[in-house]
Amino acid sequence: MSGTAELVGRVADLAGLVEYQPGSVVSREVVKRPTGTVTVFAFDERQGLSEHTAPFDALVLVLDGEVEISLAGTPQRVRQGEMLIMPAGVPHALTAVERFKMLLVMIRG
Fold first, then answer.
1. CATH of the domain at 94
2. Could you name the domain of life of the organism this protein comes from (predicted)?
3. Domain assignment of residue 77, given as a range
4. Number of domains in the chain
5. What is the CA radius of gyration of the chain?
């Protein structure tokens, strides 16, 4: 599946929408609306995102593996089936403890 239109009204395996790639971060946008986005990511081991802020609240749901997310300088381990809500404007970064997949929901408002 490559487009988002074919996902509408159908059951989909979120973790299966992206595949791991050695030394890389892979993403697939599932929903893009003026009110927010939903994106699935696959991070290889030790890959990550440097510290940054976002203008909107963000919810991370780990679909597979484990990630360390630093939120306002405090590191937290998030594992498969767990989530973390990151408030708008709060600095955060993430590093794959092991390869992992996540669903990122950004809410604009």
1. 2.60.120.10
2. Bacteria
3. 5-107
4. 1
5. 14
